[in-house]
Design brief:
lyase, Aldolase_TIM, 5-stranded mixed sheet, S-adenosyl-L-methionine, alpha/beta, 2 domains, Nucleotidyltransferase, domain 5, 4Fe-4S, iron, about 425 residues, elongated, TIM Barrel
Length: about 425
């Protein structure tokens, strides 16, 4: 653990600092490996605060840029976490890469995860090596009969389990994971959803079992009824009922009483959430292009006069190739396009012609050439406007609206100014 990252500065685990330090959740994990009967992740309302809700999903590289921008606007952020909108370890590659990037650049920040525990086990050694200090596991039952009523299914790899078998598998993985997390020196919080008529009388037993595993904190949360789910008609527990249940669970573990049921893209202090305020920034970061490999330093452009991006990919007989130069962009050379005709062979040849370019700017492109060029490592960017603005967007993550191509008519409708020979 980096000495500059003070565990006491986690506002979810330490209520004494909730007004001093904040958190940012990075929505890099869209998929889930279990189906909870209370969960519906289809909705996105900026005024709705609950797990599983986000305005957009980021890649690991986009998430790093987003953290940069968040910290510029809210320096009190002490925690960088991943809490969905699915489960981090149903998206293990993206989750682990995000943690690596954040740990490398911001070693003074606490790293935090929230998971159902199903697939976290194999990653625990690296989580510890990456200085992940806090992990939350949601455990709603330690009795498989009760668990079978809560989970619609559990997926392990390509195998889908249902009923008691699903609940037994999930519980086994959760118990193993919590023990291993504690052995690795990681602080563990347990989330437990109070579901009236299903597990509400069982929650003290969950708290007791978690205490025996060495868990540090217990967060009893009220069910949030969601439309379109099997539990949609169950009434949310009252504050009095929730308080009474926390008092029972407190016999076994300290209770978290200041939970705000954070979104998967939550940002700011617990009592001063800025998810709505940062939504535009989050959306902008989600449009940023991926980092280009070092062996693709150039950008190709389909243009008629060298000022505007104004040619369809199929129209271009010559591509201008640009490179960064002296704080701007320099026309390096022109390269002839492969001859028309030949179908997909033309686009395979174009991929070779532009094999040192990270992107090609065009006013329009068909799906087939776009896919072929993508497979060759070349990104097609549809836009209308000045070449320099397009180059800036590719190289620097500039104005993302440039990447929103206007609806183009098909070649057969006359929307293409080519010679009527299609995109072949």
């Amino acid at each position: 653990m980096n000495a500059t990252a003070d565990r006491a500065n986690h506002p979810c685990f330490n209520p004494a600092v909730k007004g001093q330090f904040g958190r940012v959740h990075l929505p890099v994990a869209p998929h889930c490996n279990i189906k909870c009967n209370y969960c519906n992740r289809k909705y996105d309302c900026v005024n709705e605060s609950r797990p599983g809700v986000t305005s957009t999903v980021l890649t690991p590289d986009q998430a790093l840029v987003y953290v940069d921008r968040v910290l510029e606007r809210e320096p009190r952020i002490s925690v960088v976490g991943i809490a969905g909108p699915g489960d981090p370890f149903a998206n293990a590659e993206a989750t682990m890469e995000t943690l690596r990037l954040i740990n490398e650049k911001y070693s003074d920040k606490l790293l935090c995860l929230s998971s159902n525990g199903m697939n976290i086990g194999p990653h625990i050694p690296e989580l510890a090596a990456l200085n992940v200090s806090h992990v939350t596991i949601t455990v709603n039952a330690v009795d498989p009969e009760i668990g079978a009523r809560i989970y619609g299914w559990v997926r392990d790899g390509k195998v889908l389990y249902r009923g008691r078998q699903a609940a037994e598998l999930l519980l086994r993985r959760q118990l193993e994971a919590i023990g291993r997390l504690k052995a690795a020196g990681i602080t563990v919080k347990i989330n437990c959803i109070m579901i009236p008529g299903v597990n509400d009388q069982h929650i003290p037993a969950v708290a007791e079992a978690m205490r025996d595993l060495g868990a540090d904190l217990f967060n009893c949360m009220a069910l949030f009824p969601n439309a379109g789910t099997p539990f949609a008609e169950i009434i949310e527990p009252s504050k009095q009922e929730l308080a009474a249940m926390r008092a029972k669970a407190e016999k076994f573990l300290p209770q978290m009483r200041h939970c705000t049921r954070c979104r998967a893209d939550a940002v700011g202090l617990l009592g001063e959430d800025k998810s709505g305020e940062m939504q535009g920034c989050l959306s902008a970061c989600a449009t940023l292009p991926p980092p280009a490999p070092a062996d693709r330093p150039y950008v190709a452009v389909a243009t008629m006069e060298g000022i505007l991006v104004n040619q369809h990919l199929g129209e271009a007989e010559v591509f201008q190739v640009f490179e960064p130069h002296a704080g701007g962009y320099h026309l390096r050379e022109e390269r002839p396009a492969p001859p028309r005709g030949g179908g997909v062979r033309r686009w395979i040849s174009l991929g070779r012609v532009l094999n040192d370019c990270r992107a090609v700017l065009v006013s329009g492109v068909g799906e087939t050439p776009k896919e072929i060029l993508r497979e060759s490592g070349l990104r097609t960017v549809e836009m209308n406007g000045f070449i320099n603005e397009g180059l800036k967007a590719v190289y620097e993550g500039g104005n993302p609206t440039l990447f929103k191509a206007r609806q183009a008519k098909s070649c057969s409708s006359g929307g293409c100014r080519g010679a009527g020979e299609g995109c072949g």
